[in-house]
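Inputs:
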Amino acid sequence: MNNLLLKLFRIIPRKADDFKIIMGGSPQSGKSSILFQLKFKAIPTPVPTLAFNKEIFKHRSRYIHLWDLSSHPKRKFFIWDNLSVGAKGLIFVADSSEPESIPTAKEELNRILQLETVKGIPLLVYANKIDKIEIEPADLAKDLGLFKIKDREWFLQPSSTEDRSGLFEGLDWLITEIRKSQAKIPENSQTE
Ligand SMILES: Nc1nc2c(ncn2[C@@H]2O[C@H](COP(=O)(O)OP(=O)(O)OP(=O)(O)O)[C@@H](O)[C@H]2O)c(=O)[nH]1
Ligand SMILES: [Mg+2]
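Outputs:
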């Protein structure tokens, strides 16, 4: 781990009760809009994310440290290897309105799922931008290869940042799964 990075950004939440969640996905799929809707219930003018955004907000009596990590081809390996450390949950955002982006999204998801830092942690997939297109969630889950995932719990949640539909429902599922997985870990091994 790069010590300078650890000093610059608090990569792992101090309190064991706080949850770190990392979010990746297709370019322009709405990751930052989701982050800002969850935190501020509003979206600032969207700007492409060069490296990452991070916000902390309270949800269901827990502080969520949500990291929106860029998948820029030149930076993603450094960013994901370093900033995914200590994550308890994973969010992946797919752009439902662009079916042609799904094969690449599937590749990116597979890359992320193989990272040692995200091993076994629950996966929430937002099928975003459903205000633009009608989707069949089971078809999208199949196209993303979700039914082949056997090493963790996963859930596909249709969503839109236009009206926040699905955003908190998805997050609720993820928090429930993180709590379940923590209940299985002996208490003295949960401190980081
Ligand atoms: N119609 C619609 N547009 C959306 C939705 N979510 C995001 N957008 C738009 O999609 C574009 C990209 O949104 P961002 O939130 O910047 O997406 P991102 O995934 O963070 O983009 P990068 O950081 O560049 O990878 C912006 O024009 C948003 O307004 C949605 O649910 N519906
Ligand atoms: Mg962004």
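Remarks. The pocket of guanosine-5'-triphosphate (ligand 1) is lined by residues 27-33, 46, 48-49, 70, 128-129, 131-132, 160-162 (CB under 6 Å). The chain is about 30% helix and 20% strand.
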